[in-house]
Task: inverse folding
C-alpha cells in the first residue's frame, strides 16, 4: 500500500541520498511471516541494488506467536549478512526481567510468554507453584543459546536516519528525542498516539496493533498484529518515498 501523493507533498521527511530503509513491525513469534518478508527484501535488493540498505526491526520479536526461538535465529543470522538495526521492544525487556525474577512468570503469561517457553522446548503447567516457576525459568536459562541472550541484551532503544526516528512504541510529547526515557520508548500509547506534535523527526513505530499501517502527519504505525492476523508489515523508505506492504 503506497502513501498518497498528498501526504508526501505535505510532509516530505527524507532519507539521505543513496540510502534505502526496510522497516518491519512487531513479529511476535511469527518466524514464517518474517522469513517471507526477508525474501521480499532480498528480491528487491537483487533487482535494484541501492548504494546502502538498512534493515530496521522495531522490536517485540518474542511472545504471543508460535516460534520466538526461530525468529531470534533469523534475526541473528540476518545481522551477520546484512546491515541491520534491531530495536528492543517491551516484550524483550520483560523476557530479560523474568530471567532475573522467576516470580514474574505469572505476569509474563499474560503477555504471551508461555509460547516463548514452548518454543525453547519447555512445557509449563497451567498454574505453576513458586518452586515450579523457578524450575521453569532455570530451564529457559539452560535452553537459551548464549547468542540469543547476547542479542537480547544488545538491542537498541531507537535509531535515527535522516528525517526518520525508528522506535518500538513511540515518544513522549514535549520531550526532545535525545532525552527520551526507555520506559516511554518501549511502552507509551495514548499520550503519543493522540499527539499531533511534530517531534523533530518523523516517527516510525509499532507496539499498538492496527488493522493496516496507520499513516499520520507526524508518525506511521506498522504493527499490524502479525501473531493474530497473519499480516506482518514491511515499510520501504527511500528519499521521501514510503511504501508499506
Result:
Amino acid at each position: 500500500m503506497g502513501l498518497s501523493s498528498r501526504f508526501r507533498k505535505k510532509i516530505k521527511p527524507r532519507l539521505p541520498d543513496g540510502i534505502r530503509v526496510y522497516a518491519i513491525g512487531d513479529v511476535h513469534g511469527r518466524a514464517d511471516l518474517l522469513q517471507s518478508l526477508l525474501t521480499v527484501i532480498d528480491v528487491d535488493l537483487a533487482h535494484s541494488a541501492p548504494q546502502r540498505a538498512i534493515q530496521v526491526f522495531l522490536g517485540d520479536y518474542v511472545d504471543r506467536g508460535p516460534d520466538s526461538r526461530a525468529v531470534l535465529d533469523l534475526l541473528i543470522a540476518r545481522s551477520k549478512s546484512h546491515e541491520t538495526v534491531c530495536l528492543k521492544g517491551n516484550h524483550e525487556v520483560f523476557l530479560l526481567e523474568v530471567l532475573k525474577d522467576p516470580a514474574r512468570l505469572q505476569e509474563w503469561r499474560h503477555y504471551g510468554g508461555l509460547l516463548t517457553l514452548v518454543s525453547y522446548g519447555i512445557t509449563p503447567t497451567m498454574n505453576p507453584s513458586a518452586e515450579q516457576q523457578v524450575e521453569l525459568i532455570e530451564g529457559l536459562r539452560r535452553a537459551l543459546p548464549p547468542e540469543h541472550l547476547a542479542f537480547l541484551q544488545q538491542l537498541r532503544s531507537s535509531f535515527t536516519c535522516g528525517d526518520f526516528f525508528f522506535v518500538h512504541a513511540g515518544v513522549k510529547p514535549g520531550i526532545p528525542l535525545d532525552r527520551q526515557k526507555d520506559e516511554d520508548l518501549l511502552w507509551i500509547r495514548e499520550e503519543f498516539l493522540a499527539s499531533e506534535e511534530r517531534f523533530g523527526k518523523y516517527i516510525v513505530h509499532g507496539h499498538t496493533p492496527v488493522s493496516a499501517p496507520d499513516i499520520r502527519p507526524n508518525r506511521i504505525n506498522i504493527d499490524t498484529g502479525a501473531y493474530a492476523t497473519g499480516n506482518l508489515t514491511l515499510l520501504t523508505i527511500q528519499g521521501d518515498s514510503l511504501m508499506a506492504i
